């Protein structure tokens, strides 16, 4: 008897909750139907979709296409990337807190593998992974509500997940708070990822994926936006002095944490972990794989600011370098050019090889040698032989010998972007060297004479003239 009553009560409860569920579901559908439909504009990184100006919820339709594409991972080195939208990172999605997102994932028929998407902005098991798992030649549609504002990573979650992510299958979705975000002058979208190729760093030709290196977490490349040099040379980010810059930075991984830093800038605000609160006046911020940060700062003086993972061998030996080229008026009260003078010689101590200016005519090569050892040898090595794939040789350099005179431009203004020396590709960043005209002439002449079998090619007057012309 007791038992039957209990069962009856349960039946009633089920019936009641069904009725409740029915009305509330249809109410929800009615509300959803009323939402304006907006198709998300998708732009290639480092560009970002436009800020949201609307003040109410919408149904945002996102059409993402999974594309397996062979592209350059470094100059002369190719790799088969798996992507969301053809780019690494995948195209950024931008919605408003409370929006309903209708995500269409297409797996192109020309692809070889099944893929899916797990968005960290989703509240619910798997973040959409199960709903969107599809073989090539199919489309999956999945709808979710963006309940919480923040900057979220999305990624493929198809087994082996580490491999899909290592091949470039990640991107970010920004859920703006209801009240919107403060206005800035520039917004950029950068993601770091670790890549595992069969060959060594910058080994030429098409490279395959090395699962063992991935398991050992020993990447060949650590990159911003999927390619060595994606954000240097022609790809450099740009800003003007006093402009407010916002970077949406995330880590796809699959394995390495990033100590994200911009050399020459202090972040005014860091929305740590891509969340709602900000910290002020930050130098370096830690971003885990599958995590993000929003940094804001205002460059005050012109010059190149360098984006790095402050685990520095990743930056200088594995590719995690980018540039923000800042233009504008110099402000010596904030950032001066500096003065360098030799220390007075201590009695009895051996005299340093830096010759005083008056002795130039007598010993120009000695002066050049001194500059070389003090300044250039740190990167190009004391014998000028360079570091394969990273710092080009200055000794016996065909590039140098072709136009030794013009090399002064490189010393004066710095250089980034692709470069071929003795048949080997380089794509690094050489900072402008803060040297006076005599020293620049001396070091170029020294390199040409002592390391390339040439003759002196220029004097301080000519360097002075070259200083006025900024080449790119
Ligand atoms: C912080 C490291 C660093 C320092 C210091 C440095 N260089 Fe470089 N240099 C580089 C890198 C990296 C490149 C390649 C740039 C590129 O890929 O565009 C380069 C390229 C060059 C090139 C053109 C390529 C070649 O091999 O002929 C010349 C010339 C050169 N540097 C001269 C100098 C001289 C002279 C000095 C010292 C006054 C100097 N560099 C100091 C890093 C450095
Ligand atoms: Cu995948």
Automatic annotation (TrEMBL):
- EC number(s) per entry: 1.7.2.1
The alphabetized UniProt keywords are: Copper, Heme, Iron, Metal-binding, Oxidoreductase, Repeat, Signal
GO MF entries:
copper ion binding; electron transfer activity; heme binding; nitrite reductase (NO-forming) activity
- SUPFAM superfamilies per the UniProt record, alphabetical: Cupredoxins, Cytochrome c
Q: Which reaction does it catalyse?
A: nitric oxide + Fe(III)-[cytochrome c] + H2O = Fe(II)-[cytochrome c] + nitrite + 2 H(+)
- Keyword set includes Signal: yes
Which cofactor(s) does the record list? Cu(+); Cu(2+)
Please give the superkingdom of this protein's source. Answer: Bacteria
| Binding-site residues, Cu cation | 115, 120, 155-156, 164, 169, 310
- The region annotated as signal peptide is 1-30
Give the cofactor binding note.
Binds 1 Cu(+) ion.
Give all residue intervals belonging to the Cytochrome c domain.
363-451
Gene3D superfamilies annotated for this entry?
Cupredoxins - blue copper proteins, Cytochrome c-like domain
What family name appears in the similarity comment?
Answer: Belongs to the multicopper oxidase family.
Oligomer status and interactors: Homotrimer.
Q: What is this protein called?
A: Copper-containing nitrite reductase
Organism taxonomic ancestry:
Bacteria, Pseudomonadati, Pseudomonadota, Gammaproteobacteria, Pseudomonadales
């Amino acid at each position: 008897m007791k038992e039957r009553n209990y069962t009856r009560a349960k039946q009633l409860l089920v019936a009641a909750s069904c009725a409740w569920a029915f009305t509330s579901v249809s109410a929800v559908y009615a509300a959803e139907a009323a939402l304006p439909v907006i198709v998300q504009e998708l732009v290639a990184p480092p560009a970002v979709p436009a800020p949201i100006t609307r003040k109410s919820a919408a149904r945002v339709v996102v059409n993402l296409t999974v594309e397996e594409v062979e592209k350059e991972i470094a100059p002369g080195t190719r790799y088969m990337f798996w992507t969301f939208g053809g780019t690494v990172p995948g195209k950024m999605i931008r919605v408003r807190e409370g929006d309903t997102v209708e995500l269409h994932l297409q797996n192109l028929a020309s692809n070889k593998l099944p893929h899916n998407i797990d968005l960290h902005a989703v509240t619910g098991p798997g973040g959409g992974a199960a709903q969107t798992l599809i073989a090539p030649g199919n489309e999956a549609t999945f709808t979710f509500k963006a309940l919480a504002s923040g900057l979220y990573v999305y990624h493929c979650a198809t087994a082996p997940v580490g491999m899909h992510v290592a091949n470039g299958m990640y991107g970010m979705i920004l859920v703006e708070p209801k009240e919107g975000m403060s206005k800035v002058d520039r917004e950029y979208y950068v993601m770091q990822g670790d890549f595992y190729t069969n060959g060594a760093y910058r080994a030429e030709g098409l490279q395959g994926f090395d699962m063992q290196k991935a398991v050992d977490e020993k990447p060949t490349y650590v990159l911003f936006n999927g390619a060595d040099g994606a954000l240097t040379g022609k790809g450099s980010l740009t800003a003007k002095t006093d402009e407010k810059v916002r970077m949406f930075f995330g880590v796809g991984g699959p394995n390495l944490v990033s100590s994200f830093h911009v050399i020459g800038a202090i972040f005014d605000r860091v929305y740590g972990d891509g969340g709602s609160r900000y910290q002020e006046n930050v130098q370096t911020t830690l971003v885990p794989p599958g995590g993000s940060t929003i940094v804001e700062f205002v460059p005050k003086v012109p010059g190149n600011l360098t984006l790095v993972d402050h685990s520095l061998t990743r930056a200088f030996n594995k590719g995690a370098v980018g540039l923000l080229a800042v233009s504008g008026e110099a402000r010596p009260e904030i950032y001066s050019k500096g003065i360098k003078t030799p220390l007075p010689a201590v009695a009895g101590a051996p005299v340093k090889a830096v010759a005083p200016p008056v002795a130039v005519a007598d010993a120009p090569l000695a002066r050049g040698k001194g500059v070389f050892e003090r300044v250039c040898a740190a990167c190009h090595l004391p014998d000028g032989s360079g570091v394969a794939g990273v710092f080009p040789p200055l000794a016996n350099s065909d590039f140098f010998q072709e136009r030794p005179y013009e090399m002064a431009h490189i010393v004066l203004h710095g250089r980034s972007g692709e470069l071929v020396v003795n048949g080997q590709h380089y794509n690094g960043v050489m900072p402008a060297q803060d040297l006076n005209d005599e020293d620049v002439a001396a070091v170029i002449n020294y390199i040409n004479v002592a390391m390339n079998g040439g003759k002196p090619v220029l004097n301080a007057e000519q360097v002075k003239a070259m200083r006025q012309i900024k080449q790119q």
